[in-house]
Amino acid sequence: MPRREASDRLAWVAGVVAAAPGERVLEVGCGHGVLVTLLAAAVGDEGRVVAVDRSPRMGAAATRRNRAAVDAGRVRVVVAPLADAELGGEPVDVVVAADVRALWTPGPEWDVVDRVLAPDGRVVVAASLMDPGGGPRLVAGLTDLARARGLAVSTTASTTATRPYPTAAVELRRAAGG
């Protein structure tokens, strides 16, 4: 059976993340590992992707999808809630989450993000917008969360028309002096 390619939504999110060769990326809520595949290609042989999902079924699917990169040591799939995940001691350059509600509100997941994010790292949170006011609410909520964590909204990516709902993404970075 042929492997399903990335949806327009996940391809757009990968473009917003714009992972560079050699970067270390943490994807929260990796699901089937589709975005993991795109991120691993972007970071290349020198980069690393850690993919976390609380579902054993999704972790197994992400591992299967990315088998060659897992075997090469470029991708590591961790099955656990983010707050309990063993992520290793190396900081990450980018944390990305697409449609992961745990990062839309304050919680222990943000403690993990704060702990693993490199000093000049960034966080990209993307969401499907199921109602017209969703984009502004997402940005406002993430701005408040960011401020409380010493992060600032650096970029609000344009909303893009994906199916079945439009998608928006917000990039956060450590605030100057934070």
From TrEMBL:
Q: Does the keyword Transferase apply?
A: yes
Q: Which molecular-function annotations from GO does this UniProt entry contain? A: methyltransferase activity
Q: Where are the transmembrane segments?
A: none
Name it. Answer: Methyltransferase domain-containing protein
Which UniProt keywords are listed? Methyltransferase, Transferase
Pfam families given in the database record: Methyltransf_25 (PF13649)
GO terms under biological process: methylation
Q: Which domain of life is it from?
A: Bacteria
